[in-house]
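Box 3.1 A note on notation
Throughout this textbook, protein chains are presented in two layers. The first layer is the amino acid sequence; the second is a token string describing backbone geometry. Keep the layers aligned when reading.
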Amino acid sequence: MDIKAILEHLPHRYPFLLVDRVLDCQPGRSIHAYKNVTINEPFFPGHFPHHPVMPGVLITEALAQAAGILSFRSLGEKPDLHSLFFFVGIDKARFKKTVTAGDQLHLHVSIQRQFRNIWKFEARAVVDGETVAEAELMCAKSNIA
């Protein structure tokens, strides 16, 4: 999926869109996407000016956005004004290495289970073949009035 298709499957927009491309998506199973981390990211001037590091919470958010794309693709739907996925839980989060400008952050997310509107995912972020972060994520589909 290119950026145009990603924008159709996520409600996020700059500066909070954290998925640049989807390399593989198997609805109902898994997704492999990536985020190109550049020195122009809006968080680098403050985190940290002399040693720019991508915040762990944004790595986790990038994984959640990949999970959102996977969820919508699995349902055969697209987000709209009345239907979104919200982050509802993070378990077993671990940050193993820093992510810096110039890295390509690969996002690997697989569905562990889905019950009604709650989805549980296994998520892993990888740079240069090494796991930099991992977590179990839970998201809930919510209908907004």
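The two ends are 30 Å apart (CA to CA). The helical segments are 3-9, 56-75.
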